[in-house]
Amino acid sequence: MARIDLDLAHSYRPNPAQDSDYALLPLKMSFEDGGAYALLGPSGCGKSTMLNIMSGLLVPSHGSVKFDGTDMTRATPQERNIAQVFQFPVIYDTMTVAENLAFPLKNRRVPRETIRQRVGQIAEMLEMSHQLDQRAAGLSADQKQKISLGRGLVRPDVAAVLFDEPLTVIDPHLKWQLRRKLKQIHHELKLTLIYVTHDQVEALTFADQVVVMTRGRVVQQGTPDALFERPAHTFVGHFIGSPGMNFLPATLQGEVLSVAGQVLGRAPRALPAGADLRLGIRPEYLALDAPGTAGSLPATVRQVQDIGTYFLVTLDLAGQRLKSRLPADAVPPAAGSPVGARLLGAHTCFYANEELVA
Ligand SMILES: Nc1ncnc2c1ncn2[C@@H]1O[C@H](COP(=O)(O)OP(=O)(O)OP(=O)(O)O)[C@@H](O)[C@H]1O
């Protein structure tokens, strides 16, 4: 296993001049030895580019990749000792499950008994022990992808295992199980795992550290909890959460804070004057008061949806749409009724020019 340090940028164009010419804007980041990471972001944000630079399939146009301090920028995937799992199964149909799992070890001339033990361990973790002697050809797409995952995890000496949207072909029910399984496997095998996905649930269940990307930029790296509680950028607030964070335009006059054109009171924290300010509050933390309650702003309930495990209330506050999540045992207000929206609290965040400032 290895610590991976990136200090690079990448453009697929020969003479990049502006930000939009870069698939990856200049970035500096580290993946610690033994960590479970997810690269999360929408299609085209640069996740696969970053993964391919780490695996050695792509040489960055600028900067370097280091493994344990050694420059690996131009090293091949073999020299880097990386295992990679792709969206679609990469296995040998004519081989049995056991032979497929053993293949990466046999290739490295691992002793037969060690191979037998490791293949047994991996098959057990993936609940494939009963299929070891079956030919891969007869298996479903799900089962074949499980073999691919196993092949990625089977070598104990790899620098890292890179997963590129590995659960895409997996049936939704099994997907749910495998996400958890991978997390458990990470704890047992202590490999460095880096997992690319555009699915926040997948990233948040699997990873200890999530790297959120948009338009070639890393906007935040942090624990699932940090991404939820303190999104460092409005994009993270929008992208993480169901639904995402509410944002309201805010202005500061002296120490008086106004939100959506309505005076809220003294600013609760020091905020930069003159910036493009926004108040961010997650639907989970947006409490509803009786209309006219001090400290809350008047709003009207537009819609109440019973989601089963919670109610989702849509509000109109001076022309701004807000969402509030109420617990399933709450009595939600009726559509059309006036309420007070409590916007300030310990979980309220403030953004200036899209970046978290308080
Ligand atoms: N081989 C290539 N040549 C030119 N441009 C490319 C190439 N591969 C990717 N790009 C561009 O680089 C940007 C980042 O692409 P990348 O595939 O890394 O994003 P991604 O987040 O992995 O998206 P997806 O999930 O759709 O694969 C996109 O604008 C894409 O069009």
Could you say what the CATH topology of the largest domain is called?
A: Rossmann fold
- Strand residue percentage: 25-35%
Tally of strands: 21
Would you identify the CATH architecture of the largest domain?
3-Layer(aba) Sandwich
List the domain count as a whole number. 2
- Share in helix: 10-25%
Protein name: ABC transporter ATP-binding protein
GO molecular function, one term: ABC-type ferric iron transporter activity
Keywords: ATP-binding, Cell membrane, Membrane, Nucleotide-binding, Plasmid, Transport
Pfam families: ABC_tran, TOBE_2
What would you say this structure looks like, in words?
The radius of gyration is 24 Å and the shape is globular. The strands form 4 sheets. Strands 6-7-8-3-9-10 form a 6-stranded mixed β-sheet, with helices on both faces. Strands 13-12-11-14-20-21 form a 6-stranded antiparallel β-sheet. It is α+β, with helices and mostly antiparallel strands. The two termini are 38 Å apart. It has 2 domains: 4-231, Rossmann fold, CATH 3.40.50; 242-356, Nucleic acid-binding proteins (OB fold (Dihydrolipoamide Acetyltransferase, E2P)), CATH 2.40.50.140. It has helices at 47-55, 77-80, 97-107, 112-125, 141-153, 172-189, 200-206, 224-229, 234-239, and strands at 4-10, 24-31, 36-40, 62-67, 70-71, 82-85, 160-164, 193-197, 209-214, 217-222, 246-253, 256-259, 262-266, 277-281, 287-289, 296-306, 310-317, 320-327, 338-342, 349-352, 355-356. The longest helix has 18 residues, at 172-189. Helix 3 (97-107) crosses helix 4 and helix 3 (97-107) packs parallel to helix 5 (141-153). A hairpin with a 2-residue loop joins strand 9 and strand 10. The chain binds adenosine-5'-triphosphate. Adenosine-5'-triphosphate binds at residues 12, 23, 41, 43-49, 198.
